[in-house]
Write a structure and sequence with these properties.
This protein is α/β, with parallel strands linked by helices and 460 residues long. It contains 13 helices and 12 strands.
Length: 460
């Protein structure tokens, strides 16, 4: 039978089913694409910009080393170094929210949004005075910080933070900082520092294995005699009053073993050099960053030994510079698993999908109500046909009724295909149709039995 000779209603339903199938396929492909896109977006590495400077410094080399290691390892968090002229510019970019991270000294003026991620190194103050002229071994004029009043101190490093730290040390040691002159020298001016006769003492701030500090001690010793290291006896008090400073100790012979520099341990003050993060950064991202830093630090240390000095920040709530929650969770072992973090959303999503499914089923049933009414009509028409079969007088009438029954069956199957009726409803149609065929068979036998020359069939 050609499509043109079919029932127009049947043709429309088939076209509708075909269009619905295409729509469902297109919707499925769209949802799959959206899910794939969301998965790709969720699993792509997070890239954090980090300000570090100055150009060519150990800090820049260290951050670049970690950035390369993260990329090579395929880590979940990547670093994008932004080289600056120094801490001042790095902090300015951080304050303006133009970078996610920054490498700074802990005693600088940091914005309220700054939180610690990791300690790159511990810088300590080294104060010393010359013992006399070159080649001479005589008692030093300056033996302690108390003797610095009225003298001049040469400070290595052009940052104002070093001068501020010196003034704090002098004040807490009972020395008026206004009575101590200060001359600053760049790290490239060690030779000028050693030759300057106006200087009575020297100060550096850096790690204990700093080449700058070692070169400065060696140069001044050669020019002015062996150094006398000045202990900061009030280091504990400074740490209490100024939480961003810490009480540290310089071990004996750490700068030189022959001659011993210093001869014995020396009490001093330290300040952390660290990576800070914006408070707004995702906890999981910062936790992953910390995990990568401490997992790969020994690998990076093969080329950059300074990487081995990285330490975990203080996670105490009363710390001078609080640790980022993501870093604290990693360090304290309180990181939440994926299920712990998103279990409420997962269960909510399941309930939502279930509710949408129920609503969709109801809506589908509601939209198919007219077809279900057609099904009931078809079922009733079949029952009517059974009654009409018993009154048929000719086989032609029976054939016409069978054609009507076939059309009703086709309509019922269309309703089933459309989802308007359930399988149980189709079974009812099947049972009714079976009774119809039995009735037709009996009636045809009865009609044929009325013809002459044929045995009469008893209707049962």
């Amino acid at each position: 039978m050609s499509e043109q000779s079919e029932n127009p209603g049947t043709t429309r339903r088939r076209l509708r089913r075909r269009n619905s199938s295409l729509l469902i396929l297109a919707t499925g492909m769209l949802l799959f694409g959206l899910a794939a896109g969301a998965l790709f977006y969720g699993l792509r590495p997070a890239t954090l910009s980090i300000a570090v400077g100055p150009t060519g410094s150990e800090d820049v080399k260290l951050i670049q080393g970690f950035a390369q290691a993260f990329t090579h390892d395929g880590s979940a968090v990547r670093l994008k170094p932004l080289t600056t002229q120094g801490s001042a510019e790095s902090i300015a970019l951080f304050t303006a929210n133009k970078v996610d991270l920054a490498v700074v000294r802990g005693d600088l003026d940091l914005p309220a949004s700054a939180e610690s991620v990791a300690i790159l190194r511990k810088n300590v103050v080294v104060l010393w005075a010359p013992s006399g002229g070159k080649g001479k071994r005589r008692s030093a004029k300056i033996k302690g910080i108390d003797d610095l009043a009225g003298h001049k101190v040469g400070v290595v490093g052009s940052t104002q933070a070093n001068v501020t730290l010196l003034r704090v040390i002098l004040t807490e040691s009972g020395v008026n900082p206004d009575k101590v002159a200060v001359g600053q020298f760049k790290t490239s001016q060690i030779a000028d520092l050693a030759r300057d006769p106006s200087l009575d003492a020297y100060m550096t701030v850096g790690p204990l294995d700093s080449k700058i500090t070692s070169d400065a001690i060696t140069a001044t010793a050669a020019a002015r005699g062996e150094p006398v290291f000045l202990p900061i006896d009030v280091s504990e008090a400074i740490a209490q009053k100024h939480p961003r400073y810490e009480s540290e100790e310089i071990a004996g012979s750490i700068f030189s073993s022959s001659p011993a520099r210093p001869e014995d341990k020396v009490e001093t003050v330290g300040v952390n050099h660290l990576i800070i993060a914006q408070h707004r950064l995702d906890d999981a991202t910062v936790g992953a960053l910390d995990r990568q830093l401490f997992t790969l630090r020994l690998q990076v240390a093969r080329d950059l030994p300074a990487a081995s000095k990285i330490e975990k920040p203080d996670t105490d709530k009363d710390a001078a510079l609080p640790a980022h929650q993501g870093a604290a969770a990693y360090i304290d072992g309180t990181e939440r698993t994926f299920l712990e973090k998103y279990s409420d959303y997962i269960w909510g999503g399941i309930l939502l999908i279930s509710g949408l499914g129920s609503a969709g089923a109801w809506l589908r049933h509601y939209m198919k109500r007219e077809e279900r009414e057609h099904y009931i009509t078809h079922r009733d028409n079949l029952l009517t046909l059974i009654s009409r079969v018993r009154g048929a007088e000719t086989t032609e009438e029976l054939a016409a009724m069978q054609s009507d029954a076939d059309a009703l069956l086709r309509e019922a199957l269309d309703c089933y295909d459309d989802g308007a009726i359930e399988e149980g409803d189709l079974s009812v149609i099947g049972l009714t149709l079976e009774q119809f065929h039995h009735a037709v068979t009996d009636r045809r036998a009865a009609i044929n039995g009325d013809r002459p020359g044929l045995p009469r069939m008893r209707a049962g």
